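Usage

Read records sequentially. Each one opens with the input sequence:
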Amino acid sequence: MNEHEALAERAAASTQTVALLGGLDSGKTTLSKLILRKAVGAGRSCAFVDADVGQKTTGPPTTIGLKLIRGFDDLESSHLAVADELYFVGSTSPEGNLLPIVTGTARLVSRARELGAEFVVVDTSGLVSGLEGEVLKFHKFELLGPDMVIGLQRGEEMLPLLGIIQRFFSCEVIALGVHPDVHPTNADERAAKREEAMRDYFSAPLQRWRVKPTVFMPALPPLFDLAQLDRLLVGMSDGKGSALGLGFLEHSTGEGVLRLASPVAEGPKALRLGAVRLDEEYRAKRVDVRGLFGTD
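and closes with the structure output:
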């Protein structure tokens, strides 16, 4: 039994919440699945929270996804990809989105408990260095209160962040080498994976609804040009605090009408504006919403 498997077995048997840290291609998802497999084998009710908004395992890009693990089949990639619940962040990068990521992660972990999960594994983004990475992880763990934090590293790059967690929180903190099964990817490959995931999400037949300018968060400024919202990604709210899924806006210049297109069958009560515009091939381009609204 190697050190990753031994740690997975211990985490699955003795903790309630495990959080994984690591840079890009460090094996967080691989280890998450190993830990969950051990927990399912031990008869525990489990959940997985995917808090990486860019390189997704559960749910489409720009979201945090919750998956209840009811059996070994749910750990297969095709099943794990389908979230039971989503939280819309609206960007494929955690940078500049610390508040919604912290809020969404905490909300979905709490939701997992409400749905009966006694054991939760949280997979985090690759933003682990610099001021923004340290602030993001600090406040995330402040809300989550994990029993165990595992930092996956190639050298000693995780030690500053792990040291902060050790000093401020009472959880067990473990530094571990990168998982041996990890295959590094480059920026182009990661972008292609995001695009494929977004195309897959919108591949189902699209429903369309006419949209009023008053349904958005943030609220549109007076006399706002609705044409600027064309192809902008939005999160669909059920009006009870949960996300129904994703959609994108379509503006008809001739009619001056704004419509929502989405594979989700149920119409939303309200819409959250994202910071991503999708082209016809569902490639995502970042949008400065503050600039769009003409604010600082």
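Summary fields computed downstream for this record:
- The helical segments are 3-14, 28-41, 77-80, 98-114, 130-144, 159-168, 187-201, 289-293.
- The chain has a mean pLDDT of 93.
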